[in-house]
Amino acid sequence: MVDYLTHRLGITISVQLYKSGYKRANDPVINYTDQPIPNCFSIYNEGFLFEKDLREKNQLPHVKTTDTLVQLFPANTDEYSINFDMFSAIFFCLSRYEEYLPFSTDEHGRFTGQQSHAFKHHYLKVPVVDFWINYFITFLNEHTNLDLKKTTRFHIKPTIDVDSAWAYQNKSQSHRLVSIVKNLINLDWDIIKDKREVLKGKIDPYDTFEYLKNSLNDKNPIYFFLMNVKRPYDTAYYVELDAFHLLLKSIDDNSEIGIHPSYESYDNPSKIKIEKDKLEKITERQIVKSRQHFLRLNFPETYNQLILNGILEDYSMGYADQIGFRAGTSLPFRFYNVDKEEVTDLMVQPFCIMDVTLKQYHDYSIEEAMIEVKTMKNTIKESNGCLSFIWHNSSFAEFEGWAGWDKVFQEIIKD
Q1: Are strands 289-290 and 41-42 parallel, antiparallel or unpaired?
Q2: What percent of the chain has pLDDT over 70?
């Protein structure tokens, strides 16, 4: 907690046991005890940070919403300078504390956004941690001799998941034949027509990499590549093909590349190393960034495995079923292992919007998705945060119902 505050505030913070009358003449002192002290800057301490055992589900923080802030762990009195346990609230969000408690998973073994504390208490779409930090900076500047500056500014971080580089191209003759037979049985005439046109020279509907390059040329995007094939979820059938190697190298010339650990890696972590090694061999560079396929994330096991495999940054922190801030922040932070009570070197970059969430989970129209994107962007601008999002190279394919969704994509990347 101290490390995080030091980083976000840009000042050195030390913790001292309280002694009556203690005060250093030149340093502001914050009282963070179970009682407010007269004539002293005091923040409510609920006791959460000092507990050794995990709480039960029914003991998770109460929430109070004021005109300016969402407050977790609110005090029952107005005698404090800050009347909620802001430090515990930040820790509760960033640590993903509630995901260490028993919960029911969805069909993919995931903790869903809909069962989160933030969703149930209506603050999931608010980067509360970022607002708390900005509030704290303003409060300190007004009540101490400090002159702190807000250390972040609004920026956009695009990330692209490549689950399937091509819809039709670079498949074997036998695979094409089986696929066409299935289409005939299902009377998928539009898909059959589309396949024939691609085989005659039309650009594959998933081959949107030139469009992405031109759209994101000043945004420093990261592309996450799936490197495993096992139906129905791992679809990278082309990993050994020269065409894929050329694609990887062309993207690597202009953008960053990360590993997209397969659906199976969630239950078989040894696959992370195998897949990462394949990607490193092709790109001839060390891969240190990662995002879990299907966002299958389990605390703390998934992050422990990523750390063991040399991953320095993870981009899985968000929900498939909901838009918003899984860890209460739009900005990167270091993963804290609650089981071991230690800060790690793994940097976590949250995302708040995914294309599939908008279209498939919420069934938004293009117009509704545009409104959602604009609202989210304005909220993040207000908090001086980062708009990180997930888009798929395949999420422009008309035959899969993505016609017109390029408008939503362009709205997201617009400054």
Answers
A1: unpaired
A2: 90
Helix (H, G, I), strand (E, B), or coil: what is residue 253? coil
Cis bond upstream, residue 332 (ω within 30): no
Closest to 207 measured CA to CA, from 250, 243, 167:
167
R_g of the chain computed on alpha carbons: 24
> What is the residue-wise DSSP string for 280-322?
HHHHTS---EE--GGG---TTHHHHHHHHTT--EE---S-SS-
Which pair of tokens denotes residue 377? 């962007």
* pTM (two decimals): 0.93
If DSSP codes are grouped into helix, strand and coil, which group holds residue 83? coil
In the prediction, which pLDDT does 106 show?
97
pLDDT bracket for residue 115 (50, 70, 90): very high
- Partners of 157 in beta bridges: 388
Domains of the chain are: 2-143 (no CATH), 155-413 (3.20.20.370)
Q: Cβ(37)–Cβ(31) under 8 Å?
A: yes
Q: What is the pLDDT of residues 211-228, one digit of tens each?
A: 999 999 999 999 999 999
Instruction: Find how far residue 126's CA is from the centre of its chain.
Output: 14
Distance (Å, whole) CA 197 – CA 177:
16
The two tokens of residue 272 are 């992370």
Is there a contact between 349 and 359 (Cβ–Cβ < 8 Å)?
Answer: no
pLDDT given for residue 144 in this prediction: 84
Pick the closest to residue 377 from 109, 188, 68, 155 (CA basis).
Answer: 155
The 8 Å CB, 24+ separation contacts for 371-379 are: 372/323, 373/408, 373/411, 373/412, 374/411, 375/125, 376/125, 376/323, 376/352, 377/412, 379/125, 379/126, 379/127
Strand locations in 115-238 (E) = 155-162, 222-225, 229-230, 234-235
Query: Which phi-psi region, left, alpha or beta, contains residue 296 (left: φ > 0; alpha: ψ -120 to 50)?
Result: beta
Q: Which two tokens stand for residue 387?
A: 């708009």
**pLDDT confidence bin for 169, thresholds 50/70/90:** confident
Q: Which two tokens stand for residue 159?
A: 């990330």
Q: How far is CA 277 from the centre of its chain?
A: 24
Q: Which two tokens stand for residue 160?
A: 């692209």
Read off the pLDDT of residues 27-84 as tens digits, 9 standing for 90 and up: 778 889 888 888 888 999 999 999 999 999 989 999 999 988 999 999 999 999 999 9
